[in-house]
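S., here's the first fold you wanted:
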Amino acid sequence: MKKFFLIVFIAPFTALAQNNYHPDLTDSEFIKMISDNIFTSRSAYNNLYKLTKTIGGRLAGSPQMVKAEQWGAKAMQDAGADKVTLQEYYQWKNTEHAVECSGIR
């Protein structure tokens, strides 16, 4: 979930900063440009609001998780990402198991 959070909320800032990228900038100047964008743009807060209020809780395997994945891919495309790829993963399904204790020694 941390990786998803970082990608969804940091990628828009780096994409916006890259639109204004100048090859003669030093690393610290480039980082300052990203930082300035974070403080002047409300896109991170808007993204967080949409993710938490519109989609809601995102437990693993829930329909909200799937919605959040689709929303995150669209948000990155809207932010200007060249290529967005959703990776397939194995979704574990819990089956019912029972444990019985017949006595304690």
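And the second, which I think is the more interesting of the pair:
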Amino acid sequence: MAISLRRRVALRAVVTNQGNDAIVSATGTHYLFGPICETLYAASGNAVDWAYGAAGIKYAYTMELRAPDFVVPPEEIENNAADMWAFHASAARDIMEEFA
């Protein structure tokens, strides 16, 4: 059953909010989230565009690591990994519940 764009955006927002809350609980870091062009920079034709449009993937994310100039200092690698794990573990639980 096809769902509307508005409903897909709302579902993604729930998963994203809960994932962000999981990061805050795990490491205290809060990430800004939203459409790439609104939160980072103009980026057309990116992997998320392809995932949503061409592949029909319902949940696709681009995450920027907490690092200056895209270079993670060695002392921040474990912290970044903890952030990413907290988000993805939360998102996986939410998405599995949707299809259970």
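Why I say that: The chain has four helices and no strands. The chain has a mean pLDDT of 87.

Talk tomorrow,
H.
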